[in-house]
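Q: I have 429 residues here and want to know how they pack in 3D. Can you give me a structure?
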Amino acid sequence: MSASADRPPSVDKLARSIADVGLPHPMLVDAARAAIAAGAPDSARSIAVATSRRMLRPVINATGTILHTNLGRAPMAWEQPERYTNLELDLTTGQRGSRMATAGALIAKACGAEDAIIVNNCAAAVLLGLGGLAEGRDVAVSRSELVEIGGGFRIPDVMARSGANLIEVGTTNRTRVDDFRGAVDDPNNDVAVVLRVHQSNYTIVGFTEAPTTAQLAGLNAPLVADIGSGLLDSRCPWLEGDPPGWLADEPAARQTLDGGAGLVMFSGDKLFGGPQAGIIAGDAELVRKCAAHPLARALRPGSLVLAALQATALAYLAEDGDAIPFWRMASLTVDQLRKRADAYGVGEIVDVMSTPGGGTLPGVEIPSVGVAVEGDQREALRELDHPIIARVDHGDSSAGETTVLDLRTIHPDDDEVVAGALRSLPSAT
């Protein structure tokens, strides 16, 4: 579209000319205005298309990072009819009930806790837990666990917002139970909670030492363990055979509680494999104190999240790991993946390593199988109607770059789409 130099085109007319982009008219008007203001009316369509592509949409994760934070972490499907639910209604008595009565109770049962409540993410769980148990009092934490998570959020900052006071113990690489005992028993302190924090996306190796859960549980203050990743049970009874070797040393909710922790806190969208949520589970009285804090109402999730968590918890109780997409994906064998790669009929089949991702199990890799094509094809794959997110292997200088698509994180139903996309690339062989 062109316009005279002294008279820009009509905003409304320009917006209507790009109606096929599919955005509501007010958004097309914004695109038209931006294009005219930039002196490039012909760019209105590209502006509108860029706006459309920023909307949430399904993508194909071919990165091999199973819990990819940028892609929403644990994939799951949840749909419910446009009907009311008994969110806070007891159908037996007809009286008002608790929205935590079902999903919270099911998760508690699945991890061996007396009770559980649910908030909107694990950072919120830590905030509420500290506010409910230690507001105005002290919390002892190892210096090795004063972590910063994604987005620049730091444990000391979360603690400050909760109203609790931080007492640092030990050193960056070595902390002993006596360091905690000294802080708890010091008459100048008022330690309400001993806090253990999952180190998330880093490890400390070499000359290190840390107390066990049982040692910390023996102190004169309840132990609250932020286990972060949400592994319910280290035995993985929902899987056939033994637990995967790559889960070794990952703290699990059931074993942490059995070891004496008063509470555990973890994410719903990591190893638990559900929607974004934060779970606080453990001793019923400690859970009650958290639930009674005013922040509990501000941080509570709605019926969609609770229903999805309920479905996930029921799958755990039924020991049906195949019903949880994360575990189904993580449990695929190399032979299964290679058979699928053979069927693609395009690119080079390569051995690759997947990662759990999502700030879980730092440094852990899982053998996998990928399909590689020449060059950096990431942009071309992202621009497809069904975007494919891949990774690049830079290799050595003589081999050049290759784009690798890891089949572990590609849903089998998308194999035909991915294979077709690869065949359409100029470099595909």
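Q: Anything worth noting?
A: The domain at 60-74+328-423 is CATH 3.90.1150.180 (Aspartate Aminotransferase, domain 1). The CA atoms of residues 204 and 303 lie 40 Å apart.
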